[in-house]
Amino acid sequence: MNGIYDEARVALHAIWTRRWLALAIAWGVCVLGWLFVSQIPSRYESRARVFVQMQNLLPASMDQPSASSRTDIDTIRQTLTSAVNLEKVVRGTDLANTVASDRDVADRVASLAQSIKVTSAQDNLFEIATSAASPKLARTITQKLIDIFVEGNLAGDRTSTSQSLSFLDKQLAQRQKQLQDAEAKRADFQNRYLGALPGTGSVADRIGAARSQMAQVDGDLAAAQSGLAAVQGQMAGVARTVAGSGGVAGAAGPARARLAAIQGQLADARARGYTESHPDVVALRAQLAQATAAARGEPLSGGSGAGSSPNPLYVSLQAMMADKQAAVASLRIRRAQLQGDLDQLNAKLSEDPTVAAEQGAIDRDYQVLKDQYDQLLTQREQIALRGQAQSQTDRVKFSVIDPPTTPQKPSAPNRMLLLTGVLIAGLGAGIGGAFLLGQLRGTFATSARLERVAGMPVIGSIGEVVTRTQSELRAKQFRMFLGGTAALGAAYVLLLGVEILQRGLAA
Question: What is the DSSP letter of 68?
């Protein structure tokens, strides 16, 4: 412990004896360091947060043709620091006063690109941070970037809609011309090859339609012939006349009249196509059996001399048979007409088989062009409607959550810390310089050190005798040293005060 204590005393003595050198080195390092720190420009950082709210007023199917709004916003966020936008910032802020040529503008743009950061805090929340030489300029640049952010999205969306409409209009005009040419070609083909043929569409379509109609007519004709045969069968079992009186006309009794009425209802039901198992037919047949039994036991009324009169049931069946015969004849004529059309179409197809193939190609080309035209027209209407909704409403709404801040102190550099660091470095350099110089010069502060280095015993030591004049001189020098050290501390405090004052003035 005594050895360490002695070495510490020796080091302190060496530094103290060279205190003026240490003070000079400290002043030199501090002055140079403080000058360097004072030349570092201050940077003030302004921040703002913007929230982007998506409003899909139209259904998703109608909003699909446009690019996703979130993708558009991400694109604007990524291109916000592009050279074009930064040039707008330079020319729209106080930076315009510091440029005189395009080269100056390019330099300012390059500097801004390094001092602007746009980060995504969440999906629709963005933070813009800008650093500049003054608080006002930093806030102005941030506000300008927000304006460009909003205008870039709205103008870009409207420009995209306008370009889409222009492109679709050109495509529609082109498709319309092609569709007109296809229609003219189709009409000319119809007039040259198919004008005299029955039906519409291609030859195959016409043949198919004729066959379908033929099958329907055959079914109707079979039903009509079946109804006619049923009526004829009923007429075969009905008498043409009914018995009556001579002289004074006789009349049938009520049982016979009811029998005739039931027979008429049954004939009408069969004419309608009712089968024997139909509930109405079954009920009428039961009533007919009862009426027949009652009519057999009923005597004829009237005077002597039997006569006859037309049977009303037979007359009704005759009228029904005439209607059925007319329907059968009409259906036969229609069937003959359809058969003639089929024969004509088959003959045309047999004579020139390429006609059907050519017509099929023409119809397919026409249908493809028509489908493309209709699809383009639908897309154009959707984009026009979406553009109208965007122009009349805020489809993408920008909300400034945190407006651009006005910084109260510079974000860089931390001048107070740097000034303190320079002071500590200066004091350390002064003390270190004095210590190193003491190590280079071979002086002995104690007799023990001299004895250890020389290897010979030291008999004794003589203390320094200081006169009064020397004592006063040393006291004066000590006060001057303290003054120099205090001046260094005062310079440090003064620089800190200047820094605080500059911050206040800048804010």
Answer: P
Q: Is 259 within 8 Å of 317 (Cβ atoms)?
A: no
Whether 383 and 161 have beta carbons less than 8 Å apart is answered as: yes
Give per-residue pLDDT as tens, 91-122.
888 888 888 888 888 888 888 888 888 887 77
The separation between the first and the last C-alpha atoms of the chain, rounded to the nearest angstrom, is: 57
Task: Give the SS3 label for residue 310.
Answer: strand
What pLDDT is stored for residue 253 in this prediction? 56
| C-alpha to C-alpha distance for 379 and 165, rounded to whole angstroms | 9
Sequential DSSP letters for 357-417: HHHHHHHHHHHHHHHHHHHHHHHHHHHHHHHHHHHHS-SEEEEEEEPPP--SS-SB--HHH
Contacts of 417 (CB under 8 A, 6+ apart): none
Q: What is the pLDDT of residues 172-222, one digit of tens each?
A: 888 888 888 887 776 666 555 544 445 555 556 667 777 788 888 888 888
Residue 139 has a CB neighbour count (10 Å cut-off) of 22
Q: Which pLDDT tens digit goes with each residue over 227-246?
A: 888 877 777 777 777 665 44
176 contact partners, CB below 8 Å, separation of at least 6? 373
Q: Which residues contact 266 (CB under 8 A, 6 or more apart)?
A: 281, 284, 285, 288
pTM score over 0.85: no
Transcribe 471-502 into DSSP letters. HHHHHHHHHHHHHHHHHHHHHHHHHHHHHHHH
| C-beta separation of 257 from 232 below 8 A | no
